[in-house]
């Protein structure tokens, strides 16, 4: 777009595409779709007598490794345990691990395309619209419907960001900073990080040349109930404030992680520098793509109805909040009753 190639691309695990992309777009960050790789497990190991164990070991290695070192260790142990050193598919996957391993691709922003969930973002986006037996003609129509839903959801999300308040869950001024700047959805993500403070233990390891080093132990949830203790490193330069952290959430999702936020609050730094409040997530910035006219513009009757419905819901909530407030303040209620009775007489 605008003669600018994108920074990153996701494709199927395919050798020919890997070579072509590296030649045509040498600066691209190229990633293979993890969901398609994991989908091949039954085909590759279905006939193996230990298929179930191999599958769950690979899943644990891929989804529950939080560093490249941990991933490598689990992978080698898996090859040893099931004697799979000569398996050509696994050999090629390991040599391409920088293209798909969650621990290896988290250093790049992927616009919300998950590295760890069982279904990648874009698959989930089309889930209700297309399936493996969808014909080309149906695909064109369904693609249209999927885009229409996306535009509608964005309009409603924009409206909510400006007209709905989510209360802060902490006393830290940095939460207020994000509350006033960020969109509804992104602020919720920041709040999830703040809720994660409960599971953190932070220890200062020392200071070298103005750079403070911390170790943060996090009780990370894997699966439904299991907790795993994972250690992350955070380094902070104090003047000016600059934070580096090993979980790479800022590179991957463009938000500060719980580990960095926890360290900052522990250092008495209760606001974050403006460079960590990104324009990308600000609610007061009109995204360029919204200036492009499309046939899904919100002038249609359906869209107008939906927006009115949201507005009505918002007004109703505000009205009930006002009523609750009045009920608890008797004198105000009495004064208001007198004034309204004058109005209606
Ligand atoms: Zn982190």
TrEMBL record:
Keyword match Zinc: yes
PROSITE patterns in alphabetical order: ZF_SWIM
A biological-process GO annotation: regulation of DNA-templated transcription
Any matching Pfam family: MULE
InterPro entries registered for this protein in UniProt: FHY3/FAR1, MULE_transposase_dom, Znf_SWIM
This protein's UniProt keywords: Metal-binding, Nucleus, Zinc, Zinc-finger
Domain SWIM-type: 230-268
Sample GO molecular function, one term: zinc ion binding
Cellular component annotations (GO), alphabetically ordered: nucleus
Subcellular location: Nucleus
Protein's UniProt keywords contain Zinc-finger: yes
The organism's place on the tree of life at top rank: Eukaryota
Family: Belongs to the FHY3/FAR1 family.
Protein function: Putative transcription activator involved in regulating light control of development.
Protein's recorded name: Protein FAR1-RELATED SEQUENCE
Organism from which the protein derives: Juglans regia
Gene name as annotated: LOC108988467
């Amino acid at each position: 777009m605008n003669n600018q190639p994108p920074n990153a691309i996701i494709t199927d695990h395919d050798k020919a595409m890997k070579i072509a992309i590296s030649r045509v777009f040498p600066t691209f960050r190229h990633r293979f779709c993890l969901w398609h790789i994991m989908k091949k497990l039954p085909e590759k190991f279905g006939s193996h007598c230990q298929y179930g164990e191999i599958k769950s070991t690979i899943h644990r290695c891929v989804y529950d490794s939080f560093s490249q070192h941990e991933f490598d260790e689990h992978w080698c142990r898996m090859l040893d345990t099931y004697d799979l050193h000569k398996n050509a598919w696994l050999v090629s996957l390991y040599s391409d691990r920088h293209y798909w391993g969650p621990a290896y691709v988290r250093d790049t922003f992927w616009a919300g395309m998950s590295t760890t969930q069982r279904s990648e973002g874009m698959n989930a986006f089309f889930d209700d619209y297309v399936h493996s037996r969808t014909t080309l003609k149906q695909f064109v129509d369904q693609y249209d419907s999927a885009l229409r839903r996306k535009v509608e959801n964005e309009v409603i999300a924009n409206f909510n960001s400006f007209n709905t308040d989510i209360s802060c869950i902490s006393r830290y001024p940095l939460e207020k900073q994000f509350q006033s700047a960020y969109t509804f959805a992104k602020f919720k993500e920041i709040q999830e990080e703040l809720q994660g403070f409960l599971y953190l233990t932070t220890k200062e390891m020392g200071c070298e040349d103005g750079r403070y080093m911390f170790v943060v132990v996090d009780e990370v949830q894997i699966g439904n109930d299991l907790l795993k203790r994972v250690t992350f490193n955070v380094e902070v330069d104090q003047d000016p404030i600059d934070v580096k952290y090993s979980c790479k959430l800022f590179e991957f999702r463009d938000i500060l992680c719980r580990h960095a936020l926890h360290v900052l609050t522990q250092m008495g730094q209760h606001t974050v520098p403006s460079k960590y409040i990104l324009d990308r997530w600000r609610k007061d910035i009109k995204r360029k793509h919204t200036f492009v006219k499309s046939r899904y513009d919100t002038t249609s009757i359906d869209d107008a109805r939906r927006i009115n419905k949201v507005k009505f819901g918002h007004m109703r909530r505000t009205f009930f909040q006002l009523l609750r407030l009045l009920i608890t303040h008797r004198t105000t209620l009495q004064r208001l009753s007198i004034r309204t009775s004058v109005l209606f007489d």
